[in-house]
C-alpha cells in the first residue's frame, strides 16, 4: 500500500515531472478513474433514484390507504355483527327456556366469523405491504444496476481507442498462448 501512495507523492517516478504526459502506472491511475466514475454516477444518478423512490413511496402510501379503507369496512362489519349479537342476546333472553344452547352457538359463530374476517383482512393488508415493498426494492435495484452498467460502458467506450484496444487484445492473446504452453 505504501508503494501506491508513494506513486502519488513522489516525483522521482516521473522523469519529467513538470511536463504533460501519460501515467501508465495502473495502480496509481485506477483509484482516480474509479473515484471519477463513482462521483459521476452519484451526481447524475441521485435525481433518478430520488424520483424512483418518491414514486414507490406514493404507490405504497396508496396501498396503505386502500388497506385502511378495507380495515374500516371490516370494523363496520364487526360493529354490525356486534349489533346483531346484541339483538340475538335479547332474543336469547326471551327464548332461554326453549333453546339456550342453540342461541349460544349462534353467538359464538357470529363472533368467530367477524374475527376471522377481520384477521383475513389484516393479513391481506400485511401481505400487500410486504409485496409492494419487495417489488419497489427490486425495481430500484434493477434501475441502479442498469444505470451503473450504462455508465461503465460509456466510460469504457470513451476511454478505449483503437490502439489501446489492439494492445489489450495482443496482451491477452500472449497470456492465452503462455497458458496453452504451460498446459501442454
TrEMBL record:
Q: Where in the cell is it found?
A: Membrane
InterPro entries, per the entry: ATP_synth_b/b'su_bac/chlpt
GO CC annotations on file: proton-transporting ATP synthase complex
Q: Which Pfam families match?
A: ATP-synt_B
Q: Which UniProt keywords apply?
A: ATP synthesis, CF(0), Chloroplast, Coiled coil, Hydrogen ion transport, Ion transport, Membrane, Plastid, Thylakoid, Transmembrane, Transmembrane helix, Transport
Task: Give the bilayer topology.
Answer: Single-pass membrane protein
An example Gene Ontology molecular-function term:
proton transmembrane transporter activity
Quick one: a GO biological-process term for this protein? proton motive force-driven ATP synthesis
Extract the coiled-coil ranges from the record.
64-98
Q: Which residues cross the membrane?
A: 32-49
Protein function = F(1)F(0) ATP synthase produces ATP from ADP in the presence of a proton or sodium gradient. F-type ATPases consist of two structural domains, F(1) containing the extramembraneous catalytic core and F(0) containing the membrane proton channel, linked together by a central stalk and a peripheral stalk. During catalysis, ATP synthesis in the catalytic domain of F(1) is coupled via a rotary mechanism of the central stalk subunits to proton translocation.
Q: Which family does it belong to?
A: Belongs to the ATPase B chain family.
What PANTHER family does its record include? ATP SYNTHASE SUBUNIT B, CHLOROPLASTIC (PTHR34264:SF8)
This protein's name: ATP synthase CF0 subunit I
Name the species this protein comes from.
Cyclanthus bipartitus
